[in-house]
Write the structure tokens for this entry.
Amino acid sequence: MHVLQAIIALAALASLSLASPIELVGRRTFSVAQVPSGKRIRNGPLAMSKTYAKYAVEAPIDIKVAAANAAASQQGEVSNAPEAHDQSYLCPVTVGSQTLNLDFDTGSADLWVYSTLMPTSEQRGHSIYNPDSSSSSNAQSDNSWTIQYSDGSGASGTVYADKVVVGSVTATSQAVEAATSVSSAFLKETHNDGLL
């Protein structure tokens, strides 16, 4: 019995020592080496699918679709044409059936384009996205968008799902924000047809 009590007391003491802060003497920094997992790319949807299969449960449709898309993931590259002083990087992007020069904007998450939904006077000098001429466009009638940038410029419009091709990578049903209006700062620019 005394041996059992001694083991319990040692376990309690060990748990207290693990929970208490550790004081470092001398050097106050440390590092932990990260063990690489080789060239394996983590794939959340695929891992979820495998977990459902392991327990003989059918995965929800959104998990199945995400896993299938991830399994067929694509790689590629696209050339860009930097504007003066690297103020923007323009790349040819096919949206629906039109090729537009889009500014790769790493500071925002939107894909918006000049469109036929804008007043004709605001379309001049740009390649324009025409959702009506794209056989793959699908209006997202309950969705609209507005974006405001830190310099005061902005744009707004309606949303379509359409095929988008960047280099050798294709998204078959990508949300595309078709502009109905853009701020005067964008109207002064004629080098880009939208942002990605």
